[in-house]
Amino acid sequence: MPQNFDDGRPRPEIRRGPQTLRGADASTPTLDQMLLDSREGREGSTRRRSAESIARDTWRVMRMQGELVEGFGSLATLGPAISVFGSARVQPGENGYEQAREVGRRLAEAGFAVITGGGPGVMEAANRGAKEGGGHSVGLGIELPHEQGLNDWVDLGIDFRYFFVRKIMFVKFSQGFVVAPGGMGTLDELFEALTLVQTGKVTAFPVVLLDREFWAPLLDWIRDTLVGRGMIAEHDVELLRVADTPEEAVELVQTTVPVSRWPDRLADRRLSDGGLAEGDPQ
Asked: Taking the model in full, what pTM does it have?
């Protein structure tokens, strides 16, 4: 348990890779912040700063490579999986939480592992439902300035330092997305997936929106503005499927990604020399 300040307030605590940071150390910038800070190197000796910046970036590339290797190795035998996204702010008992919980349960019963961002709210609900449905529950966490930590319903949890590495894992090891109501992070994952499908980078990849009422204004804008002004083709709207209920959402996933095409959930897959076993999906 995190230690408290003398006045009873909880002392900040974050996990950064193998490190646990508390107090003032917990307030240091995240690695993503340091990577993307455009102010780095503007002051002091340009030559010295440039050399230091190059050295830092070289080590960062090695950290990124390490995260990719760790993620690929940990998830290689996961089998068919669906990622569920949505707000971290909904609470147990609320409609958004309970719907995501049912989605997780139904996906597990259909033979899918459930992948989330590993945090609270919709993520916790989907992981919880996956456990209740007898399935495999995965959480891909991210280091944030205000760390949330992995929820208690995650079987396999991986904490990432870099957002882009984490995003690769969501797409690489998922066969589709179910997107519940959420905020900026949810929209980010949604439109990244749509871009990959629209450009043909991923195929047979359903993107299902849960809760028609919530998504209706966005869909109207896509049709009226994006299609209306010629920014996207009319058929691009069909990349989005909309479900009113958890049951319908899982049915839409299954029509595109039948589990039967993934024999034995890859549980007995054997890798040799780092290669894929015969018949494994690319």
From this structure: 0.77
